[in-house]
């Protein structure tokens, strides 16, 4: 009996042990970079790595650190990997340098789907976007409309790093990409996003770095705010016999930390996040804070507490705090930083040339009026560190109501607009009214900065195709420029191997892959004045009726003058009337009389 | 489709023929008087804010710009103007305060100096730079008394900068603010706008953009102290900014008890009964509105922006005191409240300006007439031309039943005579060609040339029209239709110009029609009238004198030297403004007048 019990309990324990497989890894990181413009860039990164078994549909799962809702959504729609970002504001490349992962203003979603499923990709994409939108409280349900979805050929390759079989051919019909520049991001998106993290308990007593998100005053009082979530497959071991799932969640904010004193910046955890890190998350295997001291050549820094160690990434020193360190156990981690500019740089330039990133994109709408327009995209390369040609992959997705003319596509160098550059490859899918958006992908090899320009014509929308919101124009989503930077830059970028910074900082390999997003544009379509439809309808109908009646009569009928009626004197009319009255009385009498006679005969 | 019904001359009541002249002149006079009647409080409407999102003056003032700060900025600017490196001074001030600033080279001016526009962009934290508001302060502005002279716009630049500095880093800003400092007034502004919208293929692109520009404000303050603000809103070719924008500024000015005038005329609306002063000043404002809009050029840099559908007006710091007991100039605090309130109102705006009115005439700052009302007088003035053409048309046809020998059947109707189109065609072509050639002679000469040639030479050069009476009627009929069609088109594009042209053309038609009478005396009188009172140049001089009278508000003597000077400046500046007034006048109105004038020389066959 006892033996049996012991065996049962042991098996039970074993099962529990198996289910909570210790392969699950959860990492928390906070990357901080003070910027020359007086802002500070905070990037919270949460990476969960789990066994890919949880996506199998025929076994019972135990979700340990992985959010169950995500697994459900991914499994039921046959998604192999996805990316979603919700962003408020615009990342200013020229003033802030490169972000770890870029994002366009508004919402961006893309997903690769598994090939062999019963349902077709489009219906799976629709249901996936709806479910994800519900999960994040974002209006991602608009992505499946024909205005904002496309399947680019080259720009969004799978992020998963699993070995591909030789017969594998990349099929872009399995990819769906959508962007919604109109989406506004706020706390209602942050709360459900936050709840997907393992160390977020009910209530507000979160542990670890997630505790910083409890009631942060500056989270939405920032110049840039971007939520992100990526799911992909990675190799579990070096031979890649086993695959794992990596879920990376990131929150990037850029906060204005300048003070009223000129050239003096100051911030603490409490001023930015409203709280300090009270406890570390026991589930995390890594809790690190990095401070990128890129500005240390021109600014003097005063950071407390002392860092645990310092690493060097190229030229830039990065100080690291390890919160799992023994000496920090049980203590509250608080951090403060102030820095000021050492010497007055008396240049009239806006940016210090050395700090400019290797690639920048600036895009603007040209033309005015309600019929024709155009788009110009300036891709600026930092010529100082440009020694060899680099290959740029330019992607543009434009809603169908901006009818793009491909023959107007022109690529010239920035300095001299007479030198035209021929693109290596053009992939263009023309849009169809109300069915498909325009999609343009270009591969350009260049050493100099270039301008890509093309023109479009604006379509007349039907009155019920205008969005119900106040109409201030229609958005054209950001252009995406993807490239591999040839030389190692000063910026910490996300490496393709890992979303976790710890891994990309320690590994020596530098792939230099960047995806740069341009501004989204707001263009006015020809719009009827909706504020007075009633007046317009009334006036229009009246005018048409009046004009039509008159014109119709004039053109179809022949007018003639009728004979004049002879004038009848008043006395004569009176006589007539008398006569008529008498006649009618006579008739009445006769009828009554007849009736009576009839009765008598009966 | 041809008309099926035959309209015959005997269908017109005989009484009408007798009273024809009375009816035409009566309608014309009623139209003129009706226009003046627009200024009465019965016809005009009170202004209101149609766009609820604007709600001006409701935000609590948040910007505090100290007098010391303004003085400090002004001192820096003054030094910059003295050393002639104002562009660098402004740019470095912007960059010091964390605002991105750029320069735009617009070429070399007459004195071989590089001209540069400076602009800065205050980035809004809440938006991805898709929309923006613009504040413009030209480096130099024309002064009030003499429009030839320019003065540094110290006050305007200082306040634009100070507003930019304080609004930078404000969390509630949802639209970028562009601070633009154009160098050569309209010229610089135009170069900047062309580059921003890339509307000219050869323009060099700007370094930075801030999305679609919604609306803005231009500040022109030649004097450091001012007693009232003059609102200038005339755009190019009769364009006007949205009435809501002007009302916002007026509301804010009233709230801060700053006297806001239109065309330097301030109507005191506080009095209980509207007296003589109100009527005179309102009529003056109305007439000045029409007279200045008719020129097609704007009275500030905002006109260039209206061309690109950016709603904008200019605030001009005027030295005139309008309140009776006002002794001290307007405080910086009050002025900054207006600017801040304006920007905050625009910041709240969810849509482009589309409500309220785009076609209006101001009576005073709180009353206006909308297009529905002011079109009526113009219609009355043009109506005689239409009636007369109908009468002429009806007289061409004979009833189909009677078949005289000399008839001509067209489209099933019987015309009383045979029309020979070639002399009519040549007559019109000659006049068109003449005006077209004259337009390409340097502009200043053209008017003088037209005057001389038409008066003395054209009857000698070109053979006069020879026709019979019917043919002459037909010719008149074509001219009447052309004239009313031109006026109809013009009235929709530039009402004020159409109104003035109608006032000029209608008497011309009347006189030209009178030459049908075969008395040598009548013909001589008609020609004399055409040379004197109905001469375009004389009309222009009268127009100029009337405008001067209205601006001055008192009796002034005509000044021929000033007239020629103003005409010269107008022609010099008009190309710069992108206006089409002179082209339209030279290619449609002058030929029409020429044809009418030449028709007084017609000879009966």
From TrEMBL, chain A:
Record's GO cellular component terms: GPI-anchor transamidase complex
Keyword Signal assigned: yes
Residues annotated as signal peptide: 1-21
Keyword tags: Signal
InterPro entries, A to Z: PIG-T
Gene Ontology biological process: attachment of GPI anchor to protein
Protein name, entry field: GPI transamidase component PIG-T
Automatic annotation (TrEMBL), chain B:
GO annotations of cellular component type: GPI-anchor transamidase complex
Keyword Transmembrane: yes
Pfam families: Gaa1
Biological process annotations from GO: attachment of GPI anchor to protein
Record keywords, A-Z: Membrane, Transmembrane, Transmembrane helix
Membrane-crossing residue ranges in chain numbering: 21-38, 374-398, 419-439, 445-462, 474-493, 499-517, 524-546, 577-597
PANTHER family documented for this protein: GLYCOSYLPHOSPHATIDYLINOSITOL ANCHOR ATTACHMENT 1 PROTEIN
The protein, known as: Glycosylphosphatidylinositol anchor attachment 1 protein
Protein source organism: Adineta steineri
Upper classification of the organism: Eukaryota, Metazoa, Spiralia, Gnathifera, Rotifera
